[in-house]
Amino acid sequence: MAINYVPTTCPYCGTGCSMNLVVEDGKVVGVAPYQRSPVNEGKLCPKGVYAHEFINSEDRLKTPLIKKDGKFVEASWDEAYDLIAQKLKSYKPDEMGVFASARTSNED
């Protein structure tokens, strides 16, 4: 059994706690706090401790959902991206902004 630790940031709040996903034979099986993090100093809150559970959850969404006639329905990735592109075209360049990075928390 090969066990790997993959560094990441907890997704639950804007604090930005560092953690390691515990990966065994290619499957995420747990979380371990990153011991040398200046943010969380090797500790995790209860949400962080169980942050990995949604990855393998039966309830996890694995395909995009779009609204049709007021209800969410499954869509292909191409259909979802086309809808996003169509909606973004309705905005002028100075009406919106986007900021993305693999090193930001979910509130940045």
Tags for this entry?
108 residues, N-terminal domain of TfIIb, three-stranded antiparallel beta sheet, two-stranded antiparallel sheet, extended
Summarize the helices and strands and which ones pair or pack.
Blueprint: E1 3-9, E2 18-24, E3 27-33, H1 46-49, E4 65-68, E5 71-74, H2 77-88
Antiparallel strand pairs: 1-2, 2-3, 4-5
Give a short synopsis of this structure.
By secondary structure, this protein is α+β, with helices and mostly antiparallel strands.
Give a structural overview.
The chain is built from two helices and five strands; from the N terminus they run βββαββα. The protein has 108 residues and is an alpha+beta fold. Among the domains are: 3-49, N-terminal domain of TfIIb, CATH 2.20.25; 65-91, no CATH class. The strands form two sheets. It has a three-stranded antiparallel beta sheet, with no helix packed on it. The chain has a two-stranded antiparallel ribbon with strand order 4-5. The protein is extended and about 45 Å long.
Strand content: 25-35%
Annotation field: number of helices: 2
Average pLDDT taken over every residue: 89
Radius of gyration: 18 Å
CATH superfamily of the domain at 3-49: ADC-like domains
| Helix/strand order | EEEHEEH
Strand order of the largest sheet: 1-2-3
CATH level-3 fold name of the domain at 3-49: N-terminal domain of TfIIb
CATH class group of the domain at 3-49: Mainly Beta
- Distance from first to last alpha carbon: 37 Å
Decide which structural class fits the backbone: alpha+beta
Low-confidence stretches: none
Q: Biggest β-sheet, characterized?
A: 3 strands, antiparallel
Oligomer: single chain
- C-alpha geometry: extended
By CATH, the architecture of the domain at 3-49 is named Single Sheet
- What proportion of the residues is helical, as a percent range? 10-25%
What is the tally of beta strands?
Answer: 5
